[in-house]
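QUALITY CONTROL LOG
STEP: pairwise intake check
CHECKER ROLE: data steward
CRITERIA: each record must contain a sequence immediately followed by its structure tokens, with no blank fields

ENTRY 1 OF 2
RESULT FIELD BELOW
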Amino acid sequence: MEVMPERPERPSVISVLRSSTLLNALTADDLEELATLSHLAYAERGETIWMKGNQVDFFGLVGNGFVKMVRSFATGQEVTSEIIGPGQIFGLLGVIEGGGCPLEARSVSNAWYLKIPKREILHIHEQRLVFKDQLLRRTVTRFRQSVDMMAKMTTGKVEQRIALILLMLAESYGEQTAEGVRLKVPLIRQDIAEMAGTTVESTIRTMSRWQKKNWLSSDHKHITITKMELLEEFLLP
């Protein structure tokens, strides 16, 4: 049985701000101003940060842990459309557009995240053309990724969904080693199960089977994908 992760260490506000590649387009003065107006919040595993349609006065920036964006259907089915990890922003587009949150934001692990005020970022958005341009590019890219992920998460089998999550994490948080691509963020099987929308038991069975085939390995909650091309085959049509 896996040991549940402890409460992660609280990061500093400025370190979380500096971890965002999008916010790196801002000046040092802008970041300092955001640091004085933003504050850290903690979410337990499974905690809802906001519901679909909520009006909130902030957007989030993950310091550690993971948050997923969830779309719910009238049938009761829930589909993960995006996984947000350390250094990544969630909810910013809704702030810029001025509408309610189009998706539910839910923590899939114990996580610290930064609440950045809506009013301040709107002012910066209007004043900094470089930031506005980067946001547009980021929005288009993430929209395409979200649509693709929802399609696979809706129709894919358990193995396909788990493979998709591991490959997405490898793209954002992977580092090349002699053994393969190692995920730099610590994960337990329940984290992956939550992201993939399946049970812990199914996740353990699937990943144990892949470990026996030497497709991946695990050491101190860090997963190394040793056969990336074989996991990618699960996503082929």
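ENTRY 2 OF 2
RESULT FIELD BELOW
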Amino acid sequence: MDITIAIPTYNGAARLPEVLQQLQRQVDTERIAWEILVVDNNSSDNLPAVISHYQTLLPRLRYCQELKQGAGFARHRAFGEAQGELVAFLDDDTIPDRHWVSAVADFAQTHPQAGAYGSQIHADYAVPPPPNFARIAPFLAITERGSIPLLYKKNSRLLPPSAGLVVRKAVWQQYIPAEMTLSGRVEGNMLTSEDLEMLSYIQGSPWEIWYNPAMEITHKIPAARLERDYLIPFLRGIGYSRYVTRTIATHGIKKYLLTLAYMVNDLKKILLHLLKHRTKVKTDLVAACELELLTSSLISPFFLWRKGYLKGKR
């Protein structure tokens, strides 16, 4: 098996059919051995019935369950179940174009040192986004970085999102620990960035991480994800996770010094942001999101320690 298309989902019965239908329409795949694996992350809707229906149309479709809540647990289960040498992730709201599977295979052959590589992701907004939304759009996995493949530098904090991400299974087996600190968003807890934690381990290995614009997908973003009630907790969760993703490659006294440097820099950015936007943070949603991200990044180590993430007791 060359490729496993893994789709972690939580209550995605209404969203998943469009993804599966588009996978049915893939072209230039006769030369590729590939499968589709849906990982049910403890759903309570009629997802099993939807999968059962589509298995009659897609013989390559498999189904498994992961009862531990969180995208990180679902991705670990996907790697454990995958038969492919490459594990290519889609979310249940990301629609691949008709050449996506073939582009996944082609890039692996032309870039043998790529341990992981991400897709070009376009937004399909259900309603127009707020003014200046482009400043925070990348946090919603919108990834448009040109038409030429891009190598992510080893010391860069810029990494691809999990939607549309491809990882060599052998790289995951060698470099990703069995348990990570971050597990992904769950009900009542928006702590995220479990995908960046995984990629940070690969970034510290001899393998490369790339952006492949030939792998195009469309991210469907409903109106609710453009509202304050969703965006503020979402950006807060990203900020709270940053202590882990920032310091994963450092140890001992260097980790404490690096943490202090980040805190000083965060505090500086908060003051500059307040000087620039002043009272606009009360009316400008994007500015409010940016301030929330900076503030939660500043207190990230204290939050994670208090909640037990850094002591293995969450």
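INTAKE CHECK: passed for both entries
DESCRIPTIVE NOTE, ENTRY 2: Strands lie at 3-9, 34-40, 61-65, 86-89, 94-96, 114-125, 150-151, 166-168, 208-221.
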